[in-house]
Amino acid sequence: MEMFRYFLSFIFFVALISCGSEADDNGEDFGNILDSPSSLVLTEDEHVYGWGRSDCLMCHNINNIHLQNRTDVTIDMEEIQDQVAEEGESICMDCHGSNGTTE
Ligand code: HEC
Ligand code: HEC
User: Fold this and answer.
1) What's the predicted TM-score (pTM) here?
2) In whole angstroms, how far apart are CA 28 and each of 4, 58, 101?
3) Under a CB-based contact definition with an 8 Å cutoff, are residues 60 and 69 in contact?
4) Which of 32, 74, 89, 96 has the fewest beta carbons under 10 Å from its own?
């Protein structure tokens, strides 16, 4: 009986740990976006909900993007975070294209 109680608390503990790691996430995740049709540059197909808009930060939280490099090339993500923190929304299109705002 004592053994069984240990077992139950062990399971509970493991469950707690797994919940914890879910909370500690790495921000928005769209996988390797260099694999997408035109690399970093957004296309209408991959950006249906945000297409044609320049107010990127209405939908994307600046603290929740560029947290992890999921591409297969070396990118200095901290450098991107710094640039974005300094320049804000005005710089997004330098890397992600016009997002349909000039078409
Ligand atoms: C109205 C909300 C909205 C706005 C405004 C918006 N986005 Fe998005 N964005 C989304 C959503 C939702 C997704 C998830 C992909 C999807 O379902 O379209 C996304 C996905 C992305 C992705 C990942 C695309 C991929 O390759 O999988 C990038 C990069 C991105 N947005 C950048 C931007 C930039 C840069 C701007 C401003 C020029 C912007 N977004 C404006 C809602 C928005
Ligand atoms: C210097 C280039 C650069 C600039 C400027 C830039 N991005 Fe990105 N962005 C990237 C790269 C590289 C990735 C791919 C990261 C990865 O592997 O997921 C990315 C990924 C994203 C994603 C996909 C989710 C993620 O976190 O990976 C979103 C959304 C996004 N950028 C939005 C924005 C917005 C909004 C701005 C402007 C505030 C912006 N980006 C400015 C280079 C840039």
Assistant:
1) 0.84
2) 41, 14, 23
3) no
4) 74
Q: What tokens were used for 65?
A: 């993007």
Cβ(30)–Cβ(79) under 8 Å? Answer: no
In angstroms, the CA 77 to CA 87 distance is 15
| Digit-coded pLDDT (tens) for 20-51 | 444 447 888 888 888 776 789 999 999 999 99
Return the residue whose CA atom lies nearest to atom 40 of ligand 2: 92
Q: Is residue 42 in contact with ligand 2, taking CB distance under 6 Å?
A: no
